[in-house]
Design a protein that fits this description.
By secondary structure, the chain is of the alpha/beta class. Helices cover 37% and strands 22% of the residues. The chain is built from six helices and seven strands; from the N terminus they run E-H-E-H-E-H-E-H-E-H-E-E-H. A seven-stranded mixed beta sheet has the order 3-2-1-4-5-6-7, with helices on both faces. Strand 1, helix 1 and strand 2 form a beta-alpha-beta unit. The chain is globular, with a radius of gyration of 16 Å. The structure holds 5-O-phosphono-beta-D-ribofuranosylamine. The site of 5-O-phosphono-beta-D-ribofuranosylamine (GRF) has 13 residues, from helix 1, strand 5 and helix 6.
């Protein structure tokens, strides 16, 4: 089986990244993690990836100042250097320009901690609780120009209970993310034959 080569973009902890890497260790997983790239050199996920045997590097956005597109050209070049077929965003916290979105259109996935289209953007768990939502969850979607607006590929749901705090809900949804993302990525890769 030829495995699809996935590049993972992170900005921080990398717990979803770890879930993707661990799932890729199975012989029958249809993807392999080719590289992990962070826009922040101090992201904890970089060491975490290396400890799991995956090449990890930073393409720091800071030297590019306000020129987001120039930073994205550097990211894109790195992804291509590692022969990536698919990009998985895993806590990548930069808003993208049409350049990077267009370059990977139909081949870039993201995980978002809400049941999209509800609660795009940040602070989703607090907003779900304050809205009185009966349930929360997470979504894997294709990345398009609008933030958190691309077609949803898969979702996992969890009830919001009366005793839930932002912290308890965050932890429960994060655990659901770790199960959902590897499964959704594998299904995507199989169905699109990328
Ligand atoms: C996750 O909740 C993910 O859904 C969101 O950012 C968080 C990243 O956490 N996009 P981690 O870095 O994967 O631990």
């Amino acid at each position: 089986m030829t495995k699809a080569r996935v590049g993972i973009l992170i900005s921080g902890t990398g717990s979803n990244m770890e879930a993707l890497i661990r799932a890729a260790e199975a012989d029958d997983c249809p993807y392999a993690v080719a590289v992990v790239i962070s826009n922040r050199p101090d992201a904890a996920g970089l060491e975490r990836a290396r400890a799991l045997g995956v090449t990890a590097l930073a393409v720091d956005h800071a030297p590019f100042g306000k020129d987001r597109e120039a930073h994205e050209h550097a990211l894109d070049a790195a992804l291509r250097r590692f022969n990536c077929h698919v990009v998985a965003l895993a806590g990548y916290m930069r808003i993208m320009t049409p350049f990077l979105v267009g370059a990977w259109e139909g081949r870039m996935l993201n995980i978002h901690p809400s049941l999209l289209p509800r609660h795009p953007g940040l602070d989703t768990h607090r907003r779900a609780i304050e809205a009185g939502d009966a349930e929360a969850g997470c979504s894997v979607h294709l990345v398009t120009a609008g933030v958190d607006e691309g077609p949803v590929l898969a979702q996992a749901r969890t009830p919001i209970t009366e005793t839930d705090s932002v912290e308890s809900l965050t932890a429960r949804v994060l655990a659901a993310e770790h199960a959902l993302y590897p499964r959704a990525l594998a299904e995507f890769v199989r169905s699109r034959a990328v």
